[in-house]
């Protein structure tokens, strides 16, 4: 089964908000509550995009690192509250295409997903509007 987006975040309310927003935009989305569930769903669902909160890597970066071969063709977008998310690929153990600093616009995130994928990490600065 293929899906458009896999969104991984520990915050259940954020997972629901993402599902609602992207479903209204006509995209299929699944969520994961932690890095282990994310790694399992990566294998099962073959998402076209992965959006993951950098905080999930604090617990066990090895789980996602072990899935990095699956991510070679999947653009990875990291969301973080860090003010200086340098060396994201090294921190997360996965190749990072984009980093959105909180708060960010869902519209900007959607635009990045529609744009050609960059293999060089691009940091998108925080925005005043979350939606």
Structure description:
By secondary structure, the protein is an alpha/beta fold. The protein has one domain: Response regulator (Rossmann fold, 3-Layer(aba) Sandwich). Helix content is 37%, strand content 22%. The protein has five helices and six strands; from the N terminus they run βαβαβαβαβαβ. The protein has a six-stranded parallel beta sheet with strand order 2-1-3-4-5-6. Helix 1 links the parallel strand 1 (3-8) and strand 2 (29-32). Helix 2 (35-45) packs parallel to helix 3. The protein is globular, with a radius of gyration of 13 Å. The model has no long low-confidence stretch (mean pLDDT 75).
Based on Cα principal axes, name the global outline: globular
Whole-number mean pLDDT = 75
Strand content: 15-25%
Write down how many β-strands occur, each being a DSSP E stretch of 2 or more residues. 6
Give the strand order, joined by hyphens, for the main sheet.
2-1-3-4-5-6
Spans of at least 5 consecutive residues whose pLDDT stays below 50 are: none
Q: What profile does the largest beta sheet have?
A: 6 strands, parallel
Radius of gyration: 13 Å
- Assigned CATH superfamily: Response regulator
Give the helix level as a range of percent.
25-40%
Which CATH class applies here?
Alpha Beta
What is the count of DSSP helices, taking H or I runs of 4+ residues? 5
CATH architecture: 3-Layer(aba) Sandwich
Q: Give the domain tally.
A: 1
